[in-house]
Amino acid sequence: ILVRLVGCPGQLVLRSWLSDAGRGQRMASSGSPAETAVNAVARARKEVNNIRAIMARLEESATQAPPPSALNAVKDRINQQDRALIEAELLVEKTKDRLRSAAIGRQSEGSDIAELAKRTNDVMAATPTIDETMVPPRLRSAKELASAPQIGKEKLPVLAAEISTRSQLQVEVIHGDALKVVVGDTLQAGIWFETDGSRLRPEVVTVCAVHGERLDRFRVSKYVVFQVLTERSNAALRHFWERESGTQMVLSKLIEWLGAHRNLFRDRNAGDNRLLAFDSARGAFIPPCVRGFDDHRNPQHPRSCIPAAPDKNRTGTTSQGAV
Asked: What are 159-203's pLDDT values in tens digits?
């Protein structure tokens, strides 16, 4: 036991906290981030007290008592961990009080998570005995989120060039503070921003045809399929904004999702193999233009489309000759 205490006291103290948080993914659970952090600190403090009890028994043992110098070294390391836990507990308690006193919407909660992650990162950085390899992926994501760059107007051209190279799409800045994304000959999209202090916040996305239509913030495409994609794109924007808490990853994920529509007019419905289906709500035939935000491999038609007629020869399938 003493060898483990001397070798990695920080790991031993925080082992239960880190492993439990990784298994339960408490940052994504129904409990608030503040409550999760308070519970984590309490478990870590319990581990510290258990180690102190073990050391007390070792000191009282006549046959197993270690050298005083070794015990003092372990005590110093444990006290260091205890100070870090006290600071962390104060921080999360303040955050918990703030969450209780304000009516916070889902989007605002994302900002609080980022703030809490940053403060937790500061506390962990001040405790050099923590082994980074022990931190579960979800907690590492929280730390990375705290240091992730925000969307700044002056960095927009550089960001557009980086995303263009990575996604193999044409991404450029237009009107000084907007992005134009061209997905082959299939579609073009405009990402329009509003100013939020020192950073830019994506406000709306518009989608239209590459040829014969002009990209505009307040102009709606004359084609039904691009009207549907405009609706879907704005839903995707909100999804990525809340998940990535306003970092540059919002644009990367959104543009990656737009790029998945490169073969919009050639892809078939993943469920019934149709190229076109009649949308009764919009009065037009459209291709399968509904894709998941995180897994966009299986296109579907909107729910307002008339279902395909069942195949009489094969139960549960549709006719391969359907449009």
From this structure: 999 999 999 999 999 998 899 999 999 999 999 999 877 788 999
The first and second tokens of residue 52, run together, are 């102190």
CA distance 176 to 214: 17
- φ, ψ of residue 130 in degrees (nearest 5): -75, 130
Q: Is 101 exposed, middle or buried (0-12, 13-18, 19+ CB in 10 A)?
A: exposed
Question: Residue 117 has which token pair?
Answer: 């992650």
Residue 54, judged by CB atoms within 10 A of its CB (0-12, 13-18, 19+), counts as: middle
Q: What distance in Å separates the CA atoms of residue 276 and residue 290, rounded to the nearest whole number?
A: 13
What's the rounded Cα separation, in Å, for the pair 319 and 274?
A: 9
Distance CA 55, CA 293 (A): 53
Q: Name residues whose C-beta falls within 8 Å of residue 63's C-beta, 6 or more positions apart in sequence.
A: none
Q: Lowest mean pLDDT: which of 8-17, 68-77, 283-292? A: 8-17
Distance CA 74, CA 9 (A): 7
Rounded to an integer, what distance in angstroms lies between the CA atom of residue 277 and that of residue 282? 11
Q: Across the strands, what pairs with 205? A: 191
Smallest CA-to-CA distance from 263 within 294, 296, 310, 302 is with 296
Tokens found for residue 291 = 């894709």
pTM of this prediction?
0.54
DSSP 8-state symbol, 27: G
Coil, helix or strand for 64? coil
Helix and strand element counts for the chain (H, E)? 9, 6
What is the rounded radius of gyration, in angstroms, for the C-alpha atoms of the chain? Answer: 27
**3-class secondary structure, 279:** strand
